[in-house]
Amino acid sequence: MSGLSTKISQLWSDERVRQFVRFGVVGILSSAAHYAIYYLLLFVLKATISYVIGYAVSFVGNYFFTNCYTFRTRPSWKHFIGFAGSHAINFGLHVSLFSLFLWLGVHELIIPIFVMGICVIVQFTILRWVFTKQGQ
Predict the structure, then answer these.
(1) Helix (H) or strand (E) holding 2
(2) H or E segment at 55?
(3) Cα–Cα distance between 93 and 87 in angstroms, integer?
(4) How far apart are CA 64 and CA 95, in angstroms?
(5) % of the chain beyond a pLDDT of 70
C-alpha cells in the first residue's frame, strides 16, 4: 500500500471519522429534502409556510437518519430532546457568529462559509455527545 493509501485507511478505521462522513451525508440529504419540499409546496402555498413545512419534515427525517445511520442508535425521547436542543444551540451559534463576522467587516457573501464551517463541527460534536452516551 502506498503512503497515502495507508494514511487514508488508518483515518477511515477511526469510527469518529466514519460518523462525521455519515453526518455529512445525512446533512446534505436533509438539506436537499428541505429544499425539494419547499420548492414543490410553492406551487400551492406561500413561501414562508412552504419553507416551515419543508424544514419540519426534513427535521424529522434528519433525526431518524442521524439516529439510525450516523450514530447507529435507536430513536428515543432522550435523543430527540437532545437533537432538538442541539439544533437550537446551533441556530443561536449561527446567528451570533454571523453577527460577529459582519461586525468585523467580513463580506456578507463570505460569512456563511465561515459560519457553516464552524457550526458543522460544533453540531457534530454536540450530536455525538447526545447519541453516544456523552461521546464515548
Answers:
(1) none
(2) helix 47-65
(3) 10
(4) 26
(5) 97
Place of cell 420548492: 39
- The DSSP letter of residue 75 is -
Run of H or E including 6? helix 3-12
Alpha carbons 92 and 1: distance in angstroms, whole number: 45
Rounded to 10 deg, the angle between the 77-103 and 47-65 helix axes is 120
Enclosing H/E stretch for 76: none
- From 22, 32, 33, 29, select the one nearest 67 (Cα to Cα): 22
- Say if residues 37 and 57 touch (Cβ distance below 8 Å): yes
Which pLDDT tens digit goes with each residue over 69-117?
A: 999 999 999 999 999 999 999 999 999 999 999 999 999 889 989 999 9
Amino acid identity of residue 7, one-letter, is K
- What lies within 8 Å, CB to CB, of 53 at 6+ separation is 37, 38, 41, 45
Q: Note the pTM of the prediction, 2 decimals.
A: 0.82
87 is written with which cell numbers? Answer: 439544533
